[in-house]
Amino acid sequence: MNDKIKRLAKNITELLINTSTPQDTYFSLKQLMMKQKDYFQHILPENIVKLVFYCYSLGKTNSYTLGDKMLNKIAFAVVIRNTGDIHQEDCDNCSGNGELSCEECDGDGKIDCGECDTSGKMECPQCNGTGEIEDGEDMIECDECNGGGNVTCGECGGDGRLDCGNCSYGQETCDQCDGNGQIDTDSFDYERYFIVTWDQPIKERCELTEGDTEITMSEYDFDRLRDDFIKLKIDEKWDELSEWVESNEIYCTYYNDNPKMYLTTEMYLDTSEDNIDAYT
């Protein structure tokens, strides 16, 4: 089977966008896999892993030797990093909008004018609504209302309605989330990585600290050693992590040199055995 995988690697290495590092090779292979799903979905996950290493080896040295050496040393691990950020969820009260329909105006943004009872007109104060005023012994047309007996309501300007003072255009700020649309939970956001590594110190640290409270490595070391492992899958999760899980440190929750893997619909590798039980 390895010979078949090697032949496939030779055929596709030149099709990959970037093989400068193992991680770049994996990303490039994923793009190719997405374009040719019908073909790659029939290849077993463990052979996809081999393909990554052989393509990298061919791109780097034009031979399979480096790939074989790396494959003979590989192991898999799931590591997590607590970002230190409290996980937020959509506010149930406003469904994440941050605003609610104003109860005072029923979301219309307007309320009835109480001065004119929505008519927009008021009884003329000069003629008391008669349309006429005295001029000596005669009655003449009221010049205030032009004989109509009514004048425009000064409160609403003749509209009969007023802007609601309780909201803005029918919407009021949700008091549950202060208009943010999000509320804090008791959970913390964390990143979870399913990795394959051939580096002996990384393997030893992961095996030693698997499911333990001890820090596997610092975030600095995780970044510094990024060319010594491949991130096969990255998840953003949240949970009620125990208080001893320090922010921005790396913890190993799972270690195995022969895990059960499968291809997801997005055509990347996954494992069904990873968990964070020790951290909740």
Calculate Rg over CA atoms: 36 Å
The total of beta strands comes to: 15
Unreliable stretches (pLDDT < 50, length at least 5) are: 275-280
β-strand amount: 25-35%
List the secondary-structure elements in sequence, H or E.
HHHHHEEEEEEEEEEHEHEEEE
User: How would you classify the helix and strand content by structural class?
Assistant: alpha+beta
Work out the helix count: 7
Helix percentage range: 10-25%
Largest sheet report: 5 strands, antiparallel
Integer average pLDDT: 89
* Overall outline: elongated
Give structural notes.
This protein has 280 residues and is of the alpha+beta class. Among the domains are: 1-72; 75-87 and 187-280, no CATH class. 25% of the residues lie in helices and 30% in strands. The relative contact order is 0.17.
Summarize, please.
By secondary structure, the chain is of the alpha+beta class. It has seven helices and 15 strands. Among the domains are: 72 residues; 107 residues, no CATH class.
